Amino acid sequence: MVILNTTYWVSDSRREEWLRWVREECVPAMLATGYFVEPQVAKVHAPDDGQGGSSYSVQFRAPDIAVVETWMSKAGVETASRLAALFGEEVIGFSTVLEVVEW
User: Staple partner for 91: which of 3, 28, 36, 87, CB 3.0–4.6 Å?
Assistant: First the structure.
């Protein structure tokens, strides 16, 4: 099991609009691919950066890295382009893939 984690910095002026986009467009579209399950959104608590924004983590579970890579090569670029078109530099994100370690 792996987790696709995307961390976003969101300007205060666009926070509510971005959260609505995540809830109404992003998460449903990701789930509709059939690649991902268990969406989770979390606010990152960090010292105030003085930039007028907050960070959020959006996570989805997937069965393996190959599934995430397939999604990234197909829909990932389109999703990033849509995000940039909607929010410009007021929302900036980067993704990491985390492998769940059984212990």
Answer: 87
What does pTM read for this prediction? Answer: 0.90
- CB–CB of 4/93 below 8 Å? no
Rounded Cα distance, 12 and 25, in Å: 20
From 11, 14, 6, select the one nearest 59 (Cα to Cα). 6
Which DSSP string do the residues of 63-91 spell out, in sequence order? S-HHHHHHHIIIIIHHHHHHHHHHHGGGE
- Alpha-carbon distance of 48 to 59, in angstroms, equals 23
Q: Is the dihedral of CA 65, 71, 95, 60 positive or negative?
A: negative
Spatial separation of the C-alpha atoms in residues 73 and 25, rounded to whole Å:
19
Q: Which two tokens stand for residue 69?
A: 């890579």
Phi, psi of 22 (to 5 degrees): -60, -50
Q: What is the pLDDT of residues 23-66, one digit of tens each?
A: 999 999 999 999 999 999 999 998 777 778 999 999 999 999 99
